[in-house]
Amino acid sequence: MGLLVTGTNATAPIVSASLQGIVYGFSTCTFAITIWVLALQKGIRVHYGMLIVACTLWGLSTIRMILDIYLTTHAFVAYMFSRPLGPEESLSSFNKPPQLLDNTIYGLQTLIGDAVVIYRCYIVWKSWVAVVFPLLCWGASLGSILYILNSSAKGQTGPQIILFYSLTLATNLSATPSINTFAALTELKGRQELHAKYRPIVRIRPNELSVTDADLLPSIMGPDGVPKRPCRRISGKKGAGAKEAKGRSLIGARNKDQHAEVRRVWNQAFTPTAVKGYEPAIARRAAQLVDELKGSLEKYGNTGRVDLAQWTSFFTFDIMGDIAGGFELMCNGDEHQLVQNLEKGLYLPALTQQIPWASDFLPYFPFLGQYMKALAQLGHKQATRRLNEGSVYDDLFYYLLNDPDAKGAQTPIPIVVSNSVSSIIAGSDIV
């Protein structure tokens, strides 16, 4: 087992003990909140079973924290110069009573926690069928920890601990989703009961209403409906230009008069005359799609498969490229993963649009908004390219860039980028 702890200073156990102390601090705070919820709130019946479990888990954590401090201190005091390997020899030994007690407490904590999860699963479903598999995994976890402790006592160590980790993970993965499913079904049933009692409009959260009458949708989402809430900026810029883009983009405009002003430019791009000008590009792309599908059938024959959803996505992407940007996905394939960036770039805004203040902080977290940033970069790249190349004919981008009523002034770049992204999403997103 000495191979698992490398270095004469035994860095891993020291780091482990330090992290354990941090986690213990959090668990103590959680324990205090649990006691307050379970025992100190007035008018709530005390659940003595859960109270005992909470006290037991915190007590075991405290004992293990004290034990680990003792083991680490003892290793560096008693073994520093008295043994060839120094502290590493003590920290690498798992067959001594203190180490066995430490591992026993760890296994007991895990088993109690898993048992609580299984109990919750049974309580919500009121059926033993829902907990059969978690119970089997829990029993196997109990057997595995007993086997590991017995092997450690005999000085036999190895990868057996992986078996215990796998079984406890299986226990949680089988029980927790079951609880979440029941909670979702219960919420739906609860909403139905509320609507049956209080009719079509019910407040379900401080800032949420549940509406079941379809006739009310125009009053909510129609031209004279409720104002838009703050929405995420996708302009690729920051500062004053970004605020201007957020207000003057089709999606970000919250003021009705402002939205009507922005919509006026878009309406000019979709008049019968303007749409007639898009027909050659659409007809050319449709013919290209037919040729590409024929080529795929000739290549693979009757035994091959063609992903029509992918080809349709490429087709619509290329059309929007012709009238608003410039792509060749049907010809070259999605080399730069444009479709993937489009789909994944909209995922984070969909989750965070209910938390407006979060949009100002999320871009600063590495990797969290990489697809959203890629989508903004795509819009900025397409807008910059079209600004440099100009328009061969009056396509959608021409109208978005040149407002006939602006007396020759071009639309600001952040607004062009935002509108470019909106046109790509609206025209090519078929999900």
What this model shows, in words?
InterPro entries: Cyt_P450, Cyt_P450_sf, Cytochrome_P450_monoxygenase. One of its GO terms (molecular function) is monooxygenase activity. Pfam families: p450 (PF00067). Keywords: Iron, Membrane, Metal-binding, Monooxygenase, Oxidoreductase, Transmembrane, Transmembrane helix. The protein has 2 domains: 189 residues, no CATH class; 189 residues, Cytochrome P450 (Cytochrome p450). It is built from 17 helices and 2 strands.
Give the low-pLDDT segments: 1-8, 232-243
What best-fitting shape do the alpha-carbon axes yield?
Answer: elongated
Helix content: 55-70%
- Give the ordered list of helices and strands: HHHHHHEEHHHHHHHHHHH
Say how many strands there are.
Answer: 2
Strand order of the largest sheet: 1-2
Figure out the total of helices.
17
**Beta-strand percent range:** under 5%
- Let me know the largest β-sheet: 2 strands, antiparallel
Our measurement of the CA-to-CA distance between the termini, rounded to an integer number of angstroms, reads: 53 Å
Structural class: mainly alpha
What's the structural domain tally? 2
How large is the radius of gyration? Answer: 31 Å
Summed over residues and divided by their number, the pLDDT gives a mean of: 76
Tag the structure with descriptive keywords.
single chain; 431 residues; mainly alpha; Cytochrome p450; 2 domains; 17 helices; 67% helix; 2% strand; elongated
Brief write-up:
It contains 17 helices and two strands.
